[in-house]
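Email to the structure team, subject: Gnk2-homologous domain-containing protein model.

Hi all, the expression group asked for a predicted structure before they design truncation constructs. Nothing fancy, just the tokens so they can compare against earlier work. One-line instruction: predict Gnk2-homologous domain-containing protein, return tokens.
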Amino acid sequence: MHSSYFLSKYFVCFQILAIQIFVRYVSSLNLTNAYLHHKCLVDQGKYKPGSEYEENLNHLINHISSTQKFPDGFTHTSHGEAPNFITIVFQCRGDSYGSRCSSCYATAVAELRKRCQRYKGGIIWYDQCFLDVSPRKNDYKNIFSMHNPKNVIEGTESFNKKTRDFLYELMVEATRPNRPNKNMFFYAAGEKRLGEKKLYAMVQCAQDILHCKGCLEWSIKELPKCCDAKQGARVLGTECSLRYELYPFLRS
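Reply from the structure team: attached below.
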């Protein structure tokens, strides 16, 4: 009897420990800011050390660092005159504004300088932000996709359809005029029960984009090409992005 009681007590303690570890694991998902991808815009060429272009670039980077608090997680700032005109567009994920956004900006600037050394243009993406040093074009060229390596095993057609339908719902919410929280402009996130599973998703557009709905529609239509029946996927660009997972990945 004592042995049975000891084993029962041990099992309960093990369950509690497992739950605590799981909670910490899920919480850590909200804190990651992993590097995702970068692109050096080689067609724009390189600048020379000490050039006017470099001076303008450093001025703009430092100006944003010292003046922007990122209350809405976005900046589109320019400096200089042609041919040394520079534009920086930076945006944070909708749950990462304020101090988290400032931290992501510093990380993105430092890493882009390393990965695209002296290139005039470049883009870098992280979990929580992207940085674009380049002319702005609404052409969807700078878009890439990522997906969870695991597939949904059963009911794949239903899963794909319900996932796309949910992303369309979020798109409508993100582009709805007169939203009460203006800091959430062009951003929406949520969760939806799919049988025994729960789907988590978000959509977001750059705040200077002219056609947010069109960009998100295009991205949703890309999912069957890149990420059919995947348990999680992202389509990311400088105009808009979306993501879905079967686990929580956003700050609440």
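The chain is about 40% helix and 25% strand. Helices lie at 2-29, 52-67, 99-115, 156-174, 212-226. Ping us if the truncation boundaries need rechecking.
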